[in-house]
Amino acid sequence: MIEYSTGMTTSPDAIRHLWTHKTQDHPWLADEALVIDRAEGVWVWTEAGKKLLDGFAGLAVVNVGHGRREIAEAIGEQTVRLAYYPTTRQFSNRPAAELAAKLATLTPGDLEYTMFAVSGSEANERAMQMARHYWLARGKANKHKVISLEGGYHGATMGTFAICGLPHMTAAYADLQPSGFAKVKPPYPFRDRGRGTDAELVERRAGELRQAIEREGPDTVSAVIMEPVISSGGFVMPPIGWLKAVRKICDDLEVLLIADEVITGFGRTGRWFAVEHDGVVPDIMSVAKGITSGYIPLSAAIARRKLADAFPDDATQENVHPNTYAAHPVACAAGLANLKIMEKDNLVANAEAMGARLLDGLQRAVGKNRLIGEVRGRGLMVCAELVAPDGSGPLDPEEVAKLDRKAWDRGAIVYARGQVVRLAPPLCITREEVDQLVDIVAASIEELAAEV
Ligand SMILES: Cc1ncc(COP(=O)(O)O)c(C=O)c1O
């Protein structure tokens, strides 16, 4: 056990040297009240000693839960054995090779070739670069555009901002981005179903995607990228059937499908990967977060065999350029230890069961509250969408944001932003902990309803 009882705390002056992105999600607290000191399972403790249920697993990252010594030991052992060596210039290392082989068995279909990177943003950069090199190798040099979804988020690099569907995040960089990348609407049943069915909504949106690719010219479109659940855009959960329709359009028009499973991968939605709900195999899948549960940064773009086959083994010209830390041996050792825990503790099945309990519990507790438009979930991605009490539309985001404080005061960290309060706790959460989270969120919503 590491001893933290030094009596020292982080000084406000020191915190000021951390670059902050100024979102002020906790305006009622001084920065020093938000120094997180330690964590175990689904619980975190601030330096000031407040214990909180981590209802968002950090940033939907810590899938196996906090404080897993097995991962720390794997990191320690690998650091002493080989802390770093590049995987450029034909070098490799055992943890990287073993993790790539393990991913080939876990991912659906023939997604069998992994290029590692460090962050989710980079995984998506690599995915788009793989797609581009694939078309170059196939002699289709015009295919370069990447079509994405309104509301979609794929990272904070210039390339991923070009496919970002959240305009407020990218406006500052408009002049630095490639132009001409179309964005299409996802099927958002709560907002757009109207009097029709989910299947009709999927058909309508699929038609719009097909038209967008045709308008751009299929011979200029390299890939379509999308999250199976649109996470930053508000936990939008397209009906099952959507990805199948997208897969068909991509096949018909000879466009690659990239599934961004940075958040949804590794059990989060109650399947190893969220595309499995639809029985779809994308051409490339990008993953991060849950691959190591955040114990150390690692991400990957995983490609189907046909992409790898476009580059013969005796080719000498580089295709996608890896970065310095690609396939970092320590990060890959952490990934292997993390996946071992996921399997040993049956965390994918637990995510499915506990996700159903969380969804059901919230639906029963607040489903009929006048502020709740919809409670929805897929595995351990669950949210409540809030509406104005007179039914005139979404609830004012400033009101929604008050739920962060109400939950904090009751002992949980949740993520209230825009129109939704989002929950994505560690996948190791127990029934009792789910029930605690439901009680806290329900009481917070009820208190808000009494005020609005
Ligand atoms: C779906 C999705 N893709 C990509 C990213 C970017 O990952 P990172 O922040 O590790 O670069 C995120 C981050 O939250 C994400 O949710």
Can you put this structure into words, describing what you see?
It is a single chain. With 452 residues, the protein is α/β, with parallel strands linked by helices. The chain folds into two domains: 12-64 and 346-451, Aspartate Aminotransferase, domain 1 (Alpha-Beta Complex), CATH 3.90.1150.10; 70-344, Aspartate Aminotransferase, domain 2. The chain is 38% helix and 15% strand. It has helices at 12-15, 57-60, 69-81, 94-106, 120-137, 158-161, 167-170, 189-192, 198-216, 242-253, 305-309, 329-344, 347-366, 397-410, 431-451; strands spanning 36-40, 43-46, 51-54, 111-117, 145-149, 183-184, 221-226, 256-260, 284-287, 299-304, 372-378, 381-386, 412-413, 415-417, 420-423. Strand 14 (415-417) and strand 15 form a beta hairpin. Helix 3 (69-81) packs antiparallel against helix 12 (329-344), helix 9 packs parallel to helix 10 and helix 13 (347-366) packs parallel to helix 15. The radius of gyration is 22 Å and the shape is globular. The protein starts with 11 loop residues before the first helix and ends with a helix. The site of pyridoxal-5'-phosphate has 15 residues, from helix 5.
Which helices and strands occur, and which strands form pairs?
Blueprint: H1 12-15, E1 36-40, E2 43-46, E3 51-54, H2 57-60, H3 69-81, H4 94-106, E4 111-117, H5 120-137, E5 145-149, H6 158-161, H7 167-170, E6 183-184, H8 189-192, H9 198-216, E7 221-226, H10 242-253, E8 256-260, E9 284-287, E10 299-304, H11 305-309, H12 329-344, H13 347-366, E11 372-378, E12 381-386, H14 397-410, E13 412-413, E14 415-417, E15 420-423, H15 431-451
Parallel strand pairs: 3-13, 5-6, 5-7, 7-8, 8-9
Antiparallel strand pairs: 1-2, 2-3, 4-10, 9-10, 11-12, 12-15, 14-15
Helix pairs in contact: 3-12, 4-12, 9-10, 13-15, 14-15
The protein binds pyridoxal-5'-phosphate.
Residues 59, 119-121, 124, 153-155, 227, 231-232, 260, 262-263, 288 line the site of pyridoxal-5'-phosphate (PLP).
